[in-house]
Amino acid sequence: MTVLGVIFMVASLIFVWGLTFWCFYKVLTAPKDDHVVKPPDSLGG
Amino acid sequence: MSASNKQEWGSRLGVILAVAGSAVGLGNFLRFPGQAAQHGGGAFMIPYFCALLLLGIPIGWAEWTMGRYGGRKGFHSAPAILGVIGRGRLWRYLGVIGVLIPLGVSFYYVFIEAWCLSYCFKYVGALFGGPGIGIVSGAPVGEQTGASAATFNTMIGSSADGSLFQGGVASIVWFWLAVFAINVWLVRRGLSGGIETFCKWAMPAMAVCALVVLVRVLTLDAPTPDQTVANGLGFMWNPDFEALKHPDTWMAAAGQIFFSLSVGFGVIINYASYMKRKDDLVLSGLTASATNELFEVGFGGMITLTASFVFLGATGAMAAAASGSFGLGFTTLPVVFAQMPAGNLIGALWFFMLFLAAITSSISMYQPTLAFVEEALGCTRDKAIAIVAVVGLIGSAWVVYFSGGMVALGTIDDWVGTFLIVVLAAVQVICFAWIFGMTRGMKEAHEGAYMRIPSIFRLVIQFVAPAYLLIAIGTFASQSLPGWWKGLGTNPVARNTMLLVLAVILCLVVLTAIGEKRWRAAGLDVDGERPPDDELPARSGKGGAR
Questions:
Q1: Which residues from chain B sit within 8 angstroms of residue A13, using beta carbons?
Q2: Distance from chain centroid for Cα B183
Q3: Which one of B227, B238, B244, B281 makes the best mutation probe of the A interface by having the most chain A beta carbons within 10 Å?
Q4: What percent of chain B has pLDDT over 90?
Q5: Which residues of B are less than 8 Å from A45 in CB distance?
Q6: Are the Cβ atoms of B452 and A37 closer than 8 angstroms?
Q7: Alpha-carbon Rg for chain A in angstroms
């Protein structure tokens, strides 16, 4: 396995594992109700 | 208030796992590694992640948004929801594709699911001294591969149509009936009590099985100095940047993302329609996509080709990558397990994991049709289940009986499970971005959201995704469709299978017409003409699509 192969593999794994853990952390620690994020002004919201 | 309107998700984690369960399927473990190895290895991940960010996640957000909005209007099926979003009959009838795809794919998917369960049982039996797959331990690899292929082809009845019913009913038919019954039972238990509860159990179980198999593969001893785990990972991940110069690589990456995430499948729009107005869908959609990527890249990208390389060498791994999902999963991997210490246990876990991946997808395929029948005819959930079960059983029986050369399966997969998915995604994203409107769409998406969609995705959803999808449809139409069309003329089974699909489309169109009359008579906002902030009386139990 080449150094570039290791880099691509590790970077990909960090990305998917990191994204998944971050998402589930946000979902599981989110408040139950009444937490509404308004859309950015630029979107017309 | 109808039984349909009482259906809702029990928790936000439940809906996320249900959508992720629908997306994670055999393609994550069997198709992705082959695509990556054939298109530049590690370099494939560049177009792959670009496609994830520019296509998969944004189109998914659009679908979640349309689904939840349609649910607020009292609708749960793609035809009704697209009629509301697109404000007209044209979009409503195009929405029929959103029911046809999950129903049509279920015709063959439950059969494949039965293969996985059958192989799992064979490996469990081998643990207790049974014959297993019929591969002779210690025989030359070529001989083992031949035996593995023969076992698979006999099991699925690929030699001739009706071969699974000659000289008695083949065991795979009983597996198929059992799997079908399990699907109907789970769907009948309802959205929260059946699909959600099962996915909350099955998804972690799938992850545990995948983790055990991954650890086993990464700790394999090298049979020769060259066939090490590191070199096996290198076979999959060493980048070939030359591949990035070929348009095929970028199309393959986008195609893999697209089919893997189940966008344009008609499931997300139905599942999201059961969410409450203030339920988050931005983070939920992202989490479901991330979970799918974890199984695809984190497990699929690490297990199959690495193990194939260690035991079969570079040539064997190359052949495995090129043999397609079925060849890799049901012919090559059993040979790999035969060389592996504790191979029967790993094989049992592997095929149990594939079975879970398949069943969490297949149960999601019945729910959109069920919701459509229920709200089109205004019948009870039990009656709708009976109708969907009969249609599903007939369609699936067709695939099981016409098993010769997998022509019936392949025809439905090509036309419904491949081509129409791209068409439906294009219909949905154009309807969302250009008819419903991006400003309104983004505002709707952010109702109850736990995070903001970055502004750049407004441009992505409005321009990039439709452009890509229209190019993909054009490419399909010019390159693949003529050959497929020709195949229909020369193969009676393929032609008759398409006639079956057309008959299903006709029934769905008629049901849509019946439903439209009922919805108008009930005073529902069929054409999405009322202000977006209206809330249905159904929310307080006084109305709805029934």
A1: 297-298
A2: 15
A3: B238
A4: 64
A5: 439, 442-443, 446
A6: yes
A7: 18
Q: Report yes or no on B504 lying in a domain.
A: yes
Q: Which helix (H) or strand (E) holds B412?
A: helix B407-414
Residue B306: its chain A contacts at CB < 8 A?
none
> Domain extents for chain A?
1-29
CA of A37, closest CA in chain B: separation in Å? Answer: 5
Structural domain tally of chain B?
1
Contact B396, B178 (CB under 8 A): no
Rg (chain B; Cα; Å): 23
Q: Is B459 on the interface with A (CB under 8 A)?
A: no
| B401 belongs to a structural domain | yes
Residue of B nearest to A9 (CA): B237
CA separation, residue B297 to residues B124, B249, B287, B305 (Å): 27, 17, 15, 12
Owning domain of residue B350: 3-540
Contact between B88 and B296 (Cβ < 8 Å): no
Rounded Cα–Cα distance for residues B314 and B304 (Å): 13
Is B302 strand, coil or helix?
A: helix
Backbone angles phi, psi at B267, to 5 degrees: -90, -45
Neighboring chain A residues of B455 at a CB cutoff of 8 Å: 40, 42-43
In a domain, B545, yes or no: no
Q: Kindly give the confidence (pLDDT) of every residue in chain B, 546 residues in length, as a single tens digit, with 9 standing for 90 and above.
A: 344 446 788 888 999 999 999 999 988 988 888 888 888 888 999 999 999 998 899 999 999 999 999 999 999 999 999 999 999 999 999 999 999 999 999 999 999 999 999 999 999 999 998 888 888 888 888 898 899 999 999 999 999 999 999 989 999 999 999 999 999 999 999 988 999 999 999 999 999 999 999 999 999 888 888 889 999 999 889 999 999 988 788 888 888 888 789 888 999 999 999 998 889 999 999 999 999 999 999 999 899 888 888 888 888 888 888 877 888 889 888 988 998 888 999 999 999 999 999 999 999 999 999 999 999 999 999 999 999 999 999 999 999 999 999 999 999 988 898 889 889 999 999 999 999 999 999 999 999 899 999 999 999 999 999 998 898 888 878 887 888 888 888 899 999 999 999 999 999 999 999 999 999 999 999 998 887 655 555 443 333 444
Q: Which residues contact A31 (CB under 8 A, 6 or more apart)?
A: none
Query: How near does any CA of chain A get to the CA of B519, in Å?
Result: 31
What is the Cα–Cα distance from B101 to B365, expressed in whole angstroms? 8
Candidate from B290, B298, B449 with C-beta closest to A37: B449
- The CATH code of the domain that includes B166 is 1.10.4160
Please judge whether B446 and A39 are an interchain contact, meaning their C-beta atoms are less than 8 angstroms apart.
yes
Contacts of A44 in chain B (CB under 8 A): 439, 442-443
Query: pTM of the entire structure?
Result: 0.91
Cα A9 to Cα A6: distance, rounded to the nearest angstrom: 5
Query: At CA B515, angle to CA B543 and CA B268, rounded to 5?
Result: 80
B538 neighbors B5 (Cβ within 8 angstroms): yes
Contact between chains at B280 and A30 (C-beta distance less than 8 A):
yes
Nearest CA in chain A to B237: A5
